Amino acid sequence: MPHAQQTLDKTAEAVPPHVWFGVSAVFHYLGPSFAVLLFPAVGVLGVAWFRIASAALVFAPFTRPWRTIRNADGKTRLLLLGLGACLAVMNTAFYLALERLPMSLVAAIEFAGTIAVALYGMRTGRNLLALLVTLFGVFILIDVKWSTDPLGLFWALLNGALFVGYILLGHKAAAGGASGGVERLGAAMAIAFVVLMPIGFAQALQAFGTLQLVLAGIGVGVCSSVIPYSSDQLAMSRLPRASFALCLAILPASATIIAALMLAQIPSLQDLLGIALVMLGIAVHRPAPEA
Question: Which end of the chain has less neighbouring CB within 10 Å, N or C?
Fold first, then answer.
């Protein structure tokens, strides 16, 4: 494993962190778009179960979560428990929101909570300007008609709040470097599976008789959790928390584009303007100097 860790660390250093973030931004909503298509056949909770279970299964041989948890000190174990519980509930709330609301609106609400994280770390006028520009773009993307579905809005808000928790806890997990962050992510995903096991297994069980549904569920896990969360760790290991939080402004834009391609939710001119402003904010932003 030491050689694999060195290889992962070197790979993370060789590639600019914004490239890793770009990979995460694409798969962050590409996977959920597949999940939405599976909802009628597997059920929302069943798809959430497949996402966590398959991700935990893929991570296990490489990250050996049992070893990570066993060797961790008390503080790190609390971090792993918190991150695992956050991932389990956040992903479930995300899918319950997607069942009722357009993906672009859920993504915009998901981003809104990160504003506080980005603002907390701002130390330059340029970054504050970048934040204001991205905020304006996100508000345009939201086009707040505010849903007539209060339950869907509740799940979206819960997902957004937990997404902030994911950023904070995920950044702490990445503090030990790229390889250590991915190992801790694997352990947290195993904990998330234990948390979600009794919630979604009953629905997921109905899909086990159809190989195509099982493979599709595994694909959702790889696209929604393995690729984007691993990419997040590689980016977090090199970006300040505030810079990473501001870069998340690209998520509403990626959600709008992917929803158009995968779910036939075609963006309007207003949506395109919002996307352009979000991109401009990302371009203006520069990492704030760390204390």
Answer: C
pLDDT band at 44 (very low <50, low <70, confident <90, very high): very high
Q: Which residues contact 231 (CB under 8 A, 6 or more apart)?
A: 20, 21, 23, 24, 27
In angstroms, the CA 165 to CA 90 distance is 9
- Give the pLDDT confidence score for residue 104 in this predicted structure: 76
CA dihedral (121, 126, 129, 130) in degrees, to 10, reads: -70
Q: Which two tokens stand for residue 79?
A: 């971090």
Domain boundaries, the chain: 18-284
9 with 1: CB under 8 angstroms? no
Measured distance CA(154)–CA(243) in Å, rounded: 28
pLDDT digit string, tens, across residues 76-122: 999 999 999 999 999 999 999 999 888 877 877 777 666 666 666 66
Q: Any idea what DSSP says for residue 238?
A: T
Residue 215 CB partners (closer than 8 Å, separation 6+)? none
3-class DSSP assignment, residue 278: helix
Q: Is the pLDDT of residue 280 over 50?
A: yes
Quick check: pTM over 0.85?
Answer: no
Give CA separation, 116 vs 120, 141, 168, 193, in Å.
Answer: 6, 19, 11, 29
162 — alpha (psi -120 to 50), left (phi > 0) or beta?
A: alpha
Q: Is 107 helix (H, G, I), strand (E, B) or coil?
A: helix
pLDDT value at residue 278: 74
pLDDT, mean of residues 138-153: 69
Instruction: Say if residues 111 and 29 touch (Cβ distance below 8 Å).
Output: no
Please give the Cα distance from 282 to 276 (Å, whole number).
10
